[in-house]
Amino acid sequence: IPKQHAARVRRLQAHGERPAEKPWKTIREALSDLPDPKKSGASRVQNHVYPEAGTEVNAATNPNHSKCLVIQGRLKVRFHDQDCYYTTGDWFEIPSHTEYEISYESDCSIIEFWFDAPRTA
After folding, report:
1. 8 A C-beta contact, residue 56 and residue 90
2. Which residues 6+ apart lie within 8 Å of 99 measured at CB?
3. C or N: which end of the chain has fewer Cβ atoms within 10 Å?
4. How far is it, in rounded angstroms, from Cα 107 to Cα 14?
5. Which of 71, 70, 67 is nearest to 115 (CA)?
6. Do β-strands 109-115 and 82-87 pair in parallel, antiparallel, or remain unpaired?
7. In this predicted structure, what is the pLDDT of residue 41?
8. Burial of 55 by CB count in 10 Å (0-12 exposed, 13-18 middle, 19+ buried)?
């Protein structure tokens, strides 16, 4: 234990508390209590979607840049004539004004983050 933290550790131990094993949480730990978005009233996380296996998004384009976190499942994203596969724990992004296609190969749980297109002067 580093000297600068020794006193705090002793105080926590005196009250029966243990310091955290690690000073961070993994994405899996941080999202472990994420509710099932299919259940009514469970959408406390904005842009948490649950596309089912076989769902396809064909030739779409958005004015906004998006980044997505795959919480569960496997999907294929196609843009710039290239197929990219993503699975649980992966991030992917789609630049604004880029045509893309998505095929959900299994039931998925995704959190989408949308960003405004950069302003031009």
Report:
1. no
2. 59, 60, 61, 79
3. C
4. 47
5. 67
6. unpaired
7. 59
8. middle
Residue 65 bridge partners (DSSP): 115
**pLDDT at 103 (0 to 100):** 96
Q: Please tell me the predicted confidence (pLDDT) of residue 7.
A: 84
Q: Which helix (H) or strand (E) holds 10?
A: helix 3-14
Secondary element (H or E) of residue 86: strand 82-87
Q: What is the DSSP string of 31-79?
A: TTTPPPTTSTT---STTEE-PPTT-EEEEE--SSEEEEEEEESEEEEEE
